[in-house]
Amino acid sequence: MHERLLPTPEIADALAEGRPVVALESTVISHGMPYPRNLDSARALEAEVRAAGAVPATVAVMDGRIRIGLDDAALERLAEGGTAAWKLSRRDLPVALAVGALGATTVAATMIAARMAGIAVFATGGIGGVHRGAETSFDVSADLDELARTPVCVVCAGAKSILDLPKTLEVLETRGVPVLGFGTDEFPAFYSRRSGLPVSRRCDNVTEVAAILHAKWELGLEGGVLLANPIPPADELDGEAMEAAIGLALADADSKGIKGKDVTPHLLAALERLTEGRSLTANMALIRDNARVAAGVAAAFAAITRPKD
Ligand code: PSU
Ligand code: MN
After folding, report:
1. Domain boundary among 95, 119, 143
2. Do 90 and 149 share a structural domain?
3. Residue 180 is part of which domain span?
4. What total number of domains does the chain contain?
5. What is the pLDDT of residue 308?
6. 136, 227: one domain
7. Residues within 5 A (CB) of ion ligand 2
8. Final residue in a domain of this structure, among 119, 144, 164
C-alpha cells in the first residue's frame, strides 16, 4: 500500500484476501447534504454496503494521508465540519496532502484513491458532468476526465439535470466510457428514473456488469465504467416540479456570480430549499440503493478475479 494511503485494518485485510470492498465518496457528506442528516446518510450507506456483503471504504483526506475507510469519529468530524472541509478533485489532492488540510473527495478524487488502494467499485449519488451553458463557461466536471483515465466502476443514479445531460453523455462517449443502465435502457436523471437518453448497454444483473468490467480491464483499456442505477420508484420525484426548481436554482447561482467548484454545492443547497427537503430525502434513498448495487457488483467482480486456491 502506498505510504500516503491509510486503510483501516478491516479494509486492508479484505483487500489482501480479495474480498469485496466498496469505496464511498465524502464530498456528498461535506458539501452535498446538511448536518446532521449527512452523518445519518454516511452511516446508513456503510450499513447498506455491509448488509449486502461487502466492506465499506469511505474516502477522505486527513493529516496528510488519504484515509481509506473512516471510523465513526472521523465521519463525525467530516459531517460536522461541512463546507469547512476542502472539496478535493484531482487538481486539489496534492495541495491538501501537502498542507495537511481536512478534505472531502469528489467522484474524481475518490476514484484516484480507490484505484491506488485496489478497490474496483465505488458508489455515489450523482456524478459531475457538463454544466448547462458550458459552451461559454467551459464548466465540465473533472469527474468525466477521471472516468476516462482511471479504472474504477462508478455506480450512480445518473446525473442531475442541473447539468446538460445530452452533452455529458456525448463527452463520456468520446472519452470511451461505457455507460451501463442497471435494469434500464435509459440514462436516469437522478431524481427521476428516465431522461429519454439511451445508455450504451443495459445490464439486468450484477454478473453482466462484472463480466464487462473484467473484459475492459483484461484488455488493458484505461478508464472506468459508469453504472447508472435509477432511483427506486417509491422515491422518485415529479420531473416537471424538479425542472422548475432547477431553473430557479440556476438563476439564483447565476445572479450571485457563483463559479467553478462552488457551482455544484450551491445548486444542491438551493434545490433542497426550493423542494422543502424533498430533494434531500430522495438523494439519501438513491445513494443507499447505489451502495447496495455496488456491493453486489463488487462481489460478482471479486468472484471472477479472486485467485483460486
Ligand atoms: N452531484 C450530486 N451530488 C454531489 C456531487 C455531484 O448530485 O454531491 C458532488 C460529487 O462529489 C461530484 C462533485 O464528484 O460534486 C462534482 O463537482 P464539480 O461539478 O465541481 O466537478
Ligand atoms: Mn465545475
Report:
1. 119
2. no
3. 121-309
4. 2
5. 66
6. yes
7. 139
8. 119
Q: Quick one: 218 and 292 in the same domain? A: yes
CATH of the domain at 114: 3.40.1790.10
Residues 267 and 295 in one domain: yes
Length of the chain: 309
What residues are in contact with ligand 1 under a 6 Å CB criterion? Answer: 25, 27-28, 32, 89, 106-107, 125-126, 128, 141-143, 160, 261, 264, 268
- For ligand 1, atom 10, name the residue with the nearest CA: 106
The pLDDT of residue 307 is above 90? no
Query: CA of 129: how far to CAs of 27, 69, 72, 134, 169, in Å?
Result: 15, 26, 31, 10, 9
- The answer, as to whether pTM is greater than 0.85, is yes
Q: Distance between CA atoms of 38 and 52, rounded to whole angstroms?
A: 21
At 214-242, the pLDDT tens digits run: 999 999 999 999 999 999 999 999 988 99
The Å distance, Cα 140 to ligand 1 centre, comes to 11
d(CA 25, CA 183): 24
Question: For the segment 169-184, what is each residue's pLDDT rounded down to a tens digit?
Answer: 999 999 999 999 999 9
Query: Cα(69)–Cα(238) distance, rounded to whole angstroms?
Result: 35
Mean pLDDT confidence for 276-284: 94
258 φ, ψ (degrees, to nearest 5):
-70, 130
Region 134-144 average pLDDT = 97
Q: Which ligand is nearest to the CA of 109?
A: 1
